[in-house]
Amino acid sequence: MVRFVTPLILASLSVAALAAQTCNNSKQCKDEKYPCCSQYGECGTGAFCLGGCDPLASFSLDSCAPMPVCKSKTYTWDNLDNAATQDKYLGNSTAADWTYSGKLKTEDGNLIMTMPPKSGGSLVANNHYIWYGKISGKFKSSRGKGVVTAFILLSDVKDEIDYEWVGADLTSVQTNYYWQGVLDWQNGGNISVEGGDTYNDWHTYEIDWTPEKVDWVVDGTVHRTLKKSDTYNATSKKYEFPQTPSRLQMSLWPAGQPSNAQGTIDWAGGVIDWNSEDIQNAGYDFATVGEVSVECYDPPSDATKKGNNAYIFTNSAAMEADVAITNNNTVMGSLGATGLDMDLGADKPSSSASKGSSTTSVANSIPTGATVGSGGMATNDDSGSSSGSSSSSSSGSGSDSSSGTSTTGDSETSTSSGFTQGTTTQDSGAAGQNERVLRGSLFGVLVALVVLVTL
Ligand SMILES: *[C@@H]1O[C@H](CO)[C@@H](O)[C@H](O)[C@H]1NC(C)=O
Ligand SMILES: *[C@@H]1O[C@H](CO)[C@@H](O)[C@H](O)[C@H]1NC(C)=O
Ligand SMILES: *[C@@H]1O[C@H](CO)[C@@H](O)[C@H](O)[C@H]1NC(C)=O
Ligand SMILES: *[C@@H]1O[C@H](CO)[C@@H](O)[C@H](O)[C@H]1NC(C)=O
Ligand SMILES: *[C@@H]1O[C@H](CO)[C@@H](O)[C@H](O)[C@H]1NC(C)=O
After folding, report:
1. What are the residue boundaries of the GH16 domain, all occurrences included (predicted)?
2. What is the rounded CA–CA span in Å between residue 259 and residue 313?
3. How many angstroms does the Cα of residue 432 sit away from the middle of ligand 4?
4. Is-contact 135 154, C-beta < 8 A?
5. Which of 1, 10, 48, 353 has a CB 3.0–4.6 Å from the CB of 36, allowing a cystine?
6. Res 307: pLDDT
7. Following DSSP, what letter does each residue of 164-191 receive, concatenated?
């Protein structure tokens, strides 16, 4: 990690002037006014304090907003009324089930995640955290070299459970998991998908996650099981098993973008073709999402239960026993608010959380990822423009097998261009956010690490 991070930091110096303070587990946000460490390793308020805010890298454990509890629900896609862009979501998961970036469409009751030429793709994250449960999604993956589709669970302390489809291989889906962002090459696994390829044919992919195990289930058949008992580390005396409240995220991203590290590109099956058949026909690469459902399981029997509205972390060990279910409020008063002062700026009626509310611009309140990359593990960020490329993102190569996800390097540039997010102007967030989350998939960091070491 260290080897990885250092170059990142160097790479990001160029943008440092504008950048927010960077943060990670060993360098928490220092300024109480910007206490929240976003998923991408920068300190801020507002959206920085919502989904992905890392309590271990923030000013204090209660800097991030409390996490909305699990909600069992089946999602279909007649419209996007229950989805908000990041600048419009203040933590009211009742008003918006999803936040997203990129260009989404709905068609025939399905959700189309698009990736126009030179864009960073699309990302859709569910706003309700899941603390054990079964997520199920009907997907038709994207296709083509360099194009990756993902369906994952990711917690704010970087526990992660993944499905990833690499567009160069339409016969299988890759699986992976992480505990607290610790990179481990051994965790990947491939599932061969029977009965038609992953692009042309619908298949149902499930992650069945209990306190004891994770099953990856494709079309009703359990293809891979991870038992918690097999993840015990005798040295640390810890189960290195995903065990903290996590959000469901779906994305489509350009792993094979030329600016990415060769390893990432290789893993993704080659340099992305921005003149692919799908781009010629539809104007974009795309992945199609059908019905998605979330079934919440009971929390662990010994869980601390003081309410029923929000999960919070009670200890920085961030293990299962360090999560409590409380009545804490999850909705912030404005983009200037934080977990330390949830009501700040609440001058409007309570509906503020949903779409339509106006966006006030507050410095460092909507993480864009366009600034530095640093830090945390999930961050392999590269931030943006600047940094770019080079060092940053990377991934790949490594060795082999793996699967990786990773980050997109500088795509920012290219990326942003493609987005028409319609919403705001200054918020480069659209593109950036997408990448950030992608980066949030740790595998890429792992790959990046290897690459750098190799260098
Ligand atoms: C939850 O609410 C309690 C009581 O109001 C408060 O002391 C605590 O700081 C809150 N925790 C978080 C993480 O916001
Ligand atoms: C087990 O934990 C120790 C101490 O935290 C760590 O150094 C080591 O890498 C871990 N082993 C594995 C296989 O993860
Ligand atoms: C959240 O949104 C719902 C539906 O729009 C609304 O009824 C509720 O009052 C909002 N809650 C808060 C705390 O703003
Ligand atoms: C955390 O960030 C600091 C400075 O940004 C960096 O020097 C350090 O190596 C990082 N630590 C880890 C564990 O990533
Ligand atoms: C998964 O499949 C990819 C592509 O076929 C391959 O490169 C990789 O080695 C496989 N990974 C594992 C863990 O088997």
Report:
1. 75-276
2. 38
3. 21
4. no
5. 48
6. 97
7. EEETT-TTEEEEEEEBTTB--GGG-EEE
Please give the single-letter amino acid code of residue 267. W
C-alpha 39/C-alpha 47 separation (Å) is 10
- Any idea which residue has 């692919």 for tokens? 276
pLDDT at residue number 18: 45
Domain ranges across the chain: 18-66+328-343, 69-296
Q: Which ligand is nearest to the CA of 333?
A: 3
Does 35 sit in the ligand 1 pocket, CB within 6 Å? no
Q: What type of residue sits at position 126?
A: N
Atom of ligand 2 nearest to the CA of 240: 14
69-296 CATH fold: Jelly Rolls (2.60.120)
169 CA from centroid of ligand 5 (Å): 10
Cα torsion 105, 110, 111, 112: sign: negative
